[in-house]
Amino acid sequence: MAEADRPQLYLVTPPEFDLDIFPDRLAAVLDAEEVACVRLALASRDEDRVARAADALREVAHARDVALVIENHVLLVERLGLDGVHLTDGSRNVRKLRKDLGDDAIIGAFCGTTRHEGISAAEAGADYVSFGPVGETPLGDGSRADLDLFQWWSEMIEVPVVAEGALTAELVAQFGPVTDFFGVGEEIWKAPDAAAALKALLAPLG
């Protein structure tokens, strides 16, 4: 696949990780592959823990000119010097947040498998829309974001789109021509060598 057409990489942290180890694991992956953005997706509701994780990962990401966005914790974006927010509830708050955070902040919206929700988010000012899962997962209700959705989006909508959720090398090959980003998370962090796992996952892109 030509470099210009090759989807960019969007890394998603695990929902739980050891703060003594994970920043170094992330650094190794960022040094091995070109990554456009990292999403801090901690499941914790402990503000102190989230803030400490954000500080550590911001240092790693910004040292390599990689943007760091946080999942849902809107109030921490400016306080912690992050680049933006990833919303998991579709288009609902995009317009208000664009006003609050300004034009420079990255605002992304996860829209599940719903084209309508994606269009609403794009119209409200989202910088990107993500759909998923694209692969088989026992989580959720079993619905998947199919190839047709991405094909339609890539032809009709200018706002970048992210394919994420249960990715495999086969799916990377399939969705490569119709997505702008691959959102990669648990697929690589479960492996002992995350950078090698990422390389194998992206192998079909050439």
UniProtKB/TrEMBL annotation:
Key word Zinc present: no
Keyword Nucleotide-binding among UniProt keywords: no
GO biological process: thiamine biosynthetic process
InterPro entries, sorted: Aldolase_TIM (IPR013785), ThiamineP_synth_sf (IPR036206), ThiamineP_synth_TenI (IPR022998)
Pfam families, A to Z: TMP-TENI
Molecular-function annotations in GO: thiamine-phosphate diphosphorylase activity
GO cellular component, one term: cytoplasm
Domain Thiamine phosphate synthase/TenI as annotated: residue spans: 9-174
Top-level lineage group: Bacteria
Keywords noted in UniProt: Thiamine biosynthesis
Pathway: Cofactor biosynthesis; thiamine diphosphate biosynthesis
Descriptive protein name: Thiamine-phosphate pyrophosphorylase
Protein source organism: Gemmobacter caeni
Phylogenetic placement of the source organism: Bacteria, Pseudomonadati, Pseudomonadota, Alphaproteobacteria, Rhodobacterales
